[in-house]
Automatic annotation (TrEMBL):
GO terms for biological process: defense response to oomycetes. It comes from Papaver nudicaule. Pfam families: 2OG-FeII_Oxy, DIOX_N. This is Fe2OG dioxygenase domain-containing protein. Keywords: Dioxygenase, Iron, Metal-binding, Oxidoreductase. The keyword Cell membrane does not apply. Residues 187-288 form the Fe2OG dioxygenase domain. GO terms for molecular function: dioxygenase activity; metal ion binding. InterPro entries: DIOX_N (IPR026992), IPNS-like_FE2OG_OXY (IPR044861), IPNS-like_sf (IPR027443), Oxoglu/Fe-dep_dioxygenase_dom (IPR005123), Plant_2OG-oxidoreductases (IPR050295). Its cofactor is L-ascorbate. Belongs to the iron/ascorbate-dependent oxidoreductase family.
Length: 334
């Protein structure tokens, strides 16, 4: 019987046919360069003007940056990565209790991206959780490993606080009131994807996740400290974002591109895999409330690049398509 997930204990000596990308759509790993100039922003900087200026530069030129001295302890991030690894190393029948291919579920283990729609799959399993409000969602979370709920709840709370600090600085960097974005996005939802990329026999033929932008407002990514895999598309080429000790990668999502009227870019990024080691990453997504209307902030008489839309409308459209189609935001242009 074919298993529903890759983290099944089966080792593959060859890539199964339904994971092999067409020749025109392969990662070309030999052509990827390191992104050496990615901004690393120290959030303990006491000069607010300088901090906001750095964030503005990063959002405008890169669409992503790394943050250090962010207030989340190394113990918390290490516990989170340890918990992720323990979950994916659970016995298969224990994990499969949480399996679903229904993207509307608020807690599910799944594989690839959207297994119902795809013809070629991605070399990835993931546990997706809704995280706000915690008291609503935590009861449905996995009860194994035993400390899963406690560790992940603590981490979610800390990441949410960090996200709000970043949104305030991003608001200021757009010359808006500090609480402008937070008010616009409403009572923000928070989702998490705990990603597991097993060792892959032929990493040059497939992806962990193909190129995409994130449909939400802001993504805060915790990378495995030792195993690289995140790549971003900048200056017409793919670049590797190697883990920086103690840092989170922050990237602008589609909603902030729309809200900034296109001044800030939602960066295309992808995850590649490797043959030698498993890789874990934990992506936390701050999302507008479903009813929030995204209105581009026009300035100095400029016209709106995008029409007004609700997040619910956008999210539905995003999930109805394949991940590697044209940028979903293109469909919302004026």
């Amino acid at each position: 019987m074919e298993t529903k997930v890759l983290s099944s204990g089966v080792e593959y000596s060859n890539l199964p046919a339904n994971y092999i990308r067409p020749v025109s759509d392969r990662p070309n790993l030999a052509e990827v360069t390191d992104c050496d100039d990615i901004p690393v922003i120290d959030l303990s900087c006491t000069d607010r003007t300088e901090l906001v200026r750095r964030i503005q530069h990063a959002c405008r030129v890169f669409g992503f940056f790394q943050v250090i001295n962010h207030g989340i302890t190394g113990g918390s991030t290490e516990e989170m990565l340890k918990m992720a690894r323990e979950f994916f190393h659970l016995p298969l029948d224990e994990k499969l209790k949480y399996y679903s291919d229904d993207p509307t579920k608020t807690m599910r283990l799944s594989t690839s991206f959207n297994v119902k729609k795809e013809t070629v799959h991605n070399w990835r399993d993931y546990l997706r959780l809704h995280c706000h409000p915690l008291d609503k969602f935590v009861p449905d979370w996995p009860s194994t490993p035993p400390s899963f709920k406690d560790v992940v709840s603590t981490y979610c709370t800390e990441v949410r606080e960090l996200g709000f600090r970043l949104l305030k600085a991003i608001s200021e960097s757009l010359e808006l009131e500090g609480d402008y974005i937070e008010k616009m996005l409403g009572d923000q939802e928070q989702h998490m994807a705990i990603n597991y990329y097993p060792p892959c026999p032929q990493p040059d033929l497939t992806y962990g996740l193909p190129a995409h932008t994130d449909p939400n407002a802001l993504t805060i990514l915790l990378q495995d400290g030792e195993v690289a895999g995140l790549q971003v598309f900048k200056d017409e080429k793919w670049m590797a974002v190697n883990p920086h000790p103690g840092a989170f990668v922050v990237n602008i999502g589609d909603q902030l591109q729309a809200l900034s009227n296109g001044r800030y870019k939602s960066i295309r990024h992808r995850a590649v895999v490797n043959s030698g080691k498993e890789r874990i990453s934990v992506a936390s997504f701050l999302c507008p409330s479903n009813e929030a209307t995204i209105i581009p902030a026009t300035q100095n008489g400029s016209s709106a690049v995008y029409r007004n839309f609700t997040y619910q409308e956008y999210y539905k459209k995003f999930w109805s398509r394949n991940l590697d189609q044209e940028h979903c935001l293109e469909l919302f242009k004026n």
